Structure formats: structure tokens, C-alpha cells
Amino acid sequence: MTIAQQQTMPEHRIGKLEDFPERKVVPVEAGGKTIGVLRRGDDVHAFANRCPHHGAPMCRAQVSGTMRPSEPNQFVYDLDGLIVKCPWHAYEFDVRSGEAMGGIIRGRLFVYHCEVRHGEVFVQLRRPATPSLKASPIPGE
After folding, report:
1. Which residue, 13, 109, 126, 134, shows the most beta carbons closer than 10 Å to its own?
2. How do the domains of the chain map onto residue ranges?
3. Is the pLDDT of residue 128 over 90?
4. What class has domain 7-124?
């Protein structure tokens, strides 16, 4: 995304940095959408409240790290505080990119650009540049 494109997207102030406890997903209303916001240190990440797998509410996601590929019989835990786990099927997503971890599913968690300026948190809401995989309907709806 270019700087010019970022400057033309609607920006929403969603709170102060201290409003967001570390390692906890906080649901926030911005631009008529509910989004999940996750703080790790001085960095804040925002993402859609819908898992790309079956549409689970990602604002209920657990925050963790993940196991990374490594040598046989070695285990490498990484990305602590940057992974959100779907509350329904435990699929893992990197909140920085939306990438699904482990190659289990196709599709990404939709993420939004977040910025902290002078202790205030801002998010830019946008539509995906390309069509994403549609989440399956939620059973019972």
C-alpha cells in the first residue's frame, strides 16, 4: 500500500494506548465495524472480527505464540503475543499480516493498519484490494 493510499483512507481514533491491556484482544467499534485490537508493547494491531475459516468471532480469540518449523526433535516457540487463535477451531493467525500459521487453511485474517501517535491509537479501515476467500456460513444462521 502506498503512502498516498494510506492518506486517503478513513482513519478512526480508537483510544489511548493505555486503554489496551497487553496480550488481550479488545473489541472496538470503528466506522460501523467491530474489530479486534491487540497490543504488544508499544505496537497495536487490529483485525476483522471474523475468522476466514467459518466466521468465528475473532474478538474472542486467545492470544499466544506458535511452534515454528525446526530441526527434528527440536521445538521452537516464537511470535509470543502476536498470534490469535480462533475460538472455534483453534486456527492460528499472525496479527501483523493475517497469515494463517501452519499451512492448514487457505485465506488470511483481514488486518487493518494501526498507528500510535502521542499515546493515541488510530486505525485505518479499508476494503480488501482483492477479493478474499469468503467465510463459510455460520451454522444455525
Report:
1. 109
2. 7-124
3. no
4. mainly beta
